[in-house]
Each structure stands twice: as C-alpha cells, then as structure tokens.
Design a protein that fits this description.
heterodimer, A: mainly alpha, Arp2/3 complex 21 kDa subunit ARPC3, 82% helix, B: alpha+beta, mini-chromosome maintenance (MCM) complex, domain 2, 35% strand, rod-shaped
Chain lengths: 179, 117
Amino acid sequence: MRVRSAVNQREFSARRVAYLGLLASLAVLMGYVEATLPGLSGIPGVKPGLCNIVIVFTLYAFGVPEAFLVSVARILVIGFLFGNLFSMIYSLAGTCFAITAMALLRGAGPFSPVGVSAAGGAAHNTGQLVAACLLLPGIPFTRYLPLLLAAGCAAGAVNGLIVLAVTSKLGNILKTSRF
Amino acid sequence: MKKGDIILISAILVLAAAVLLLSGRSADGARLVVTVDGELFGSYSLGEDREIRIGSSNICVIRDGEVSMSEADCPDRVCVRSKPIRREGETIVCLPNRVILSITGEDGVDAPDAIAG
C-alpha cells in the first residue's frame, strides 16, 4: 500500500510539473507577444501584462506557490531573452507584491478572478515602482503611483475577464483532471 | 464578476485619485534655484508670482508656476528666448553672465536623468 501511494505521489507530481512547465512556457510566449507589440503609451510600466493571464489562471487552477513558481520562471526567461538585470529586478518585485495581494484577496472571499487580477495588476505596478525608487533615488514616487495604479487595475481587470472566459471553457477539464 | 470586484476596483481607483490629489499639492513645493558663477544666489517658491533681479545683468519672472528670463544684458539673449520652465530638472542658462535657473523638487532632489526600461 505504502509503495503504491508513493508511486501515485510521484505520478501526481510529475503531471503537475509537466502542467506547470506548459504554463510557464505559455507565460513566456505571452511575454514575447507583448515584447513585439509597439509601446502602447510610451510610459514605462503601462502595458497589458498578458503573462498575467497565465499567472492568474495558475493561481486559480493550482495555487499560490505554483503561481509564484511559474511567474519567477517566466521572469527569468523573459529577462534573459528581452530584458536586462533591472527589468528582472523590477518584475520580481512586482510579482512578489502581486502574488501576495492576489493570494490574500482570493482567500478573503467575495472576489472573482476579475477583482483579484485587477488588484494584482495594481500591486504589481506598485512593487515595480517601489523597486525603481529604491534603485534610483529621486524618482517622485507619488507622481507616478496614481497612473500606474489605474493602469495596472485596468489591465488586470481585462486579464481577469479573459481568465474567467478560459476557466468557464475549461470547466469540466479542470474538474476531472487531477493536476 | 461579482459585486466585490466592483468595490475592489473602485477602491483602487479612489486610492489612485487620492494620491494624485495629494501629490498635486506637493508639486507646488517645486522651487526655483538661481545660481550665479556656480554659487547659490537664491531659492524661490514657484507658488507666488514675482520678479527677481539677478545682480545687474538679468531679471527673471515667476508667473503661474512658470519661470522665464525676462531681461538679460548679453548680446545673444538665448536665455530670454528660452521656453518657460516649470518641471523638476528643467533649466534656463545664461552663459555669458553665468546665470543658471533650475527647478528642483520640494526636497531639492533633481529628477532622474533616465529611467531604465
């Protein structure tokens, strides 16, 4: 019995790792798509954050640690491909803020992925701005914060709607699959 | 999409608006710093309109939170033709008289030269 359950455990975790790897590569792909888009506004930090569709989906389908792992994997790959050390530091700070906020709100109750993702977007931009201010003293924090909060919130809400659409299409598969 | 979402999103936007209003107020704390020959001549609030005589060579004017050079006795008068300045880090320079007008933030910190992408 014991051996059998240990085998099941391993199967289970291999399946999980495979799915997370798929999701991480999907997130990288989203990052690539975003990197090829022309700047939407010319303002650093204001972008659709397409990768976060995958991250929010992972948060709901798997859980907090998995979402964090996929996110960090995505940042490292995207950072080495398209970015630089600073963009990686900003993204990591943003992710820590965003995942923390989304984990707390998802557990808190009356929010759907739309609200959770909107708050995550706002928290992500806040985290990036905090990191930028720590690295480059002299950035007027309060002058950038309102715009970045609003932009993160809007982008996050749209991403949340996409996650809702995806999870409703995948509804049965999500329920019957053992991740 | 639930009712909680709308409340949450509204809360974030209200927070953004509140920060915007508060920081709008502190932007009035920007100051004009005048240096002559590399030495500090004076520091003035942009909040009140006034005319500042800088030695006998230049006169600059603060109006509606903008600073411009109104008079200069140099021949080229590049500084007088310069656009008015109002944002942190902007400057007007009168090279012949070695007069520099620059805008600094409330705490005297200049805006960053560049922001890493």
